[in-house]
Amino acid sequence: MQSYVSVHPHKISMAISKLYLRLFLVYFLSNFCNCASFASYSSSSCDSNESSSSVTICNLTPYPSFCDSQLPSQGQGDIHLMGRFFVDKSLSSSETFLSLLSKYLTTPFRFSNSTILALQDCYLLGGISKDFFSRTLKSINSTNTLSSSEAEELLILLSATVTCQDTCLNSLKETTPNPTSDVLEYLSNGTKLYSISLAFFKRGWWKPKRNTERKLDTMWEQKLYELIRRRGRELLKVGADDVVVNGTVVVNPDGYGDYKTINDAVAAAPSNLQGNDGFFVIHVVGGVYEEYVSIPHDKRYLMMIGDGINQTIITGDHNKVDGWTTFSSATFGN
User: Fold this and answer.
1) Separation of CA 34 from chain center
2) DSSP assignment of 35-62
3) In terms of C-beta density within 10 A (0-12 exposed, 13-18 middle, 19 or more buried), how is residue 221 classed?
4) How far apart are CA 236 and CA 231, in angstroms?
5) Residue 38 pLDDT class (50, 70, 90 cuts)
6) DSSP summary character for residue 327
7) Beta-bridge mates of residue 289
8) pLDDT tens figures, 194-242
9) Cα distances (angstroms) measured from residue 261 to each of 140, 258, 284
10) Which of 220, 278, 226 is nearest to 248 (CA)?
11) Cβ neighbour number for residue 302 with a 10 Å cutoff
């Protein structure tokens, strides 16, 4: 005689549910466990099947699909390898874009005067981006760690490259109804590359400042403000309030100073100063300066001080009606 064990249907249902849960966990862990840590990501970390191909290190960026399409032939690496790869790729893209712009600027008869001004804006901005990528790549090429101050500076530079792309595009839209497709393509792809580079750098090398570091920055800024507020001859005092001053010049339109124009004083400033070199201070005496001041990107750590509102005035007459772009009509720019 066969014997039967009576099991309540609810208990059978619970057992089946637990079995499915266990099977799901085994499947999940076997497929995605190796993909959990992006910091040690490599091309062999996950299966190449379609179910796991969507989980990649590129998901850390604002343009995952474009990032995937640009990956090196050997596949993706860890966060630092990917950061170096995309900064290098962004540098190459900026160089190619500059070559394209140079070709257009050597044949100006093809474009209106306003379009030429926009292309000149783009060429200037492209040169800045190229320099920033070159400096970043040099700093991260052989290290996975940076000092807090250097990482902060490079993060600002990489952020600026994205802004340069937007400014170039805005200049073209202002002056050119139908920009050439190759320029638009380079701008679009360049913006994506630059943004991806920024994302990888931010995760690989930059660390948010702690509260103590922010307090030190605030104290330093307060001392700097006090130095600026006092102005005058005290600026000649090297290291006043722990703010190092590399040198000081005076601009006076009446000729009673070192220079009559602000641009002359900027040109005289040392190039490529480092933070520990101190600031080069330009004191602009009260007056009206009809000039367009553009600070070259190699003129770093400049401190420019005027005599106050309605005292030191920089003015010009560039405007959109005459064909100038918004970027090139600024009386003061970097």
Assistant:
1) 32
2) GS-GGG--TTSS--SHHHHT--GGGGSS
3) exposed
4) 9
5) very low
6) T
7) 314
8) 999 999 999 999 988 776 666 666 666 666 556 555 544 444 444 445 5
9) 39, 9, 9
10) 278
11) 17
Neighbours of 291 (CB within 10 A): 14
Residue 20: what residue type? Y
- Token digits of residue 127: 């040169």
Q: Which residue has the tokens 């619970």?
A: 14
Q: Torsions phi, psi of 80, nearest 5?
A: -75, -40
The partner residues of 302 in beta bridges, in order of sequence, read: 280
List the domains of the chain with CATH numbers.
79-204 (1.20.140.40), 211-333 (2.160.20.10)
Backbone angles phi, psi at 146, to 5 degrees: -135, 155
Question: Do the Cβ atoms of 280 and 273 come closer than 8 Å?
Answer: yes
Ranges of beta strands (E only) in 18-142 are: none
Pick from 108, 110, 124, 105: which is nearest to 325 by CA?
A: 124
Q: Which residues pair with 245 in a beta bridge?
A: 279
Tokens of 121: 């804006």
pTM: 0.66
Structure token digits, residue 245: 């001053």
Q: What distance, in Å, lies between the first and last C-alpha atoms of the chain?
A: 96
Q: Residues 254-298: pLDDT tens digits?
A: 888 899 999 999 999 998 888 778 888 888 988 888 888 888 878
Cα dihedral 41, 44, 46, 49 in deg (nearest 10): 140
Task: Provide the residue count of the chain.
Answer: 334
Strands 312-315 and 287-290, sheet pairing: parallel
Q: How many CB atoms lie within 10 A of CB 229?
A: 8
CA distance 317 to 212: 46
Tell whether the model's pLDDT for residue 46 goes beyond 70.
Answer: no
**Spatial CA neighbour of 79 closest among 37, 132, 45:** 37
pLDDT band at 302; cut points 50, 70, 90: confident
The values of phi and psi at residue 248, to 5°, are -135, 135
- Phi first, then psi, for residue 147 (nearest 5°) are -65, 155
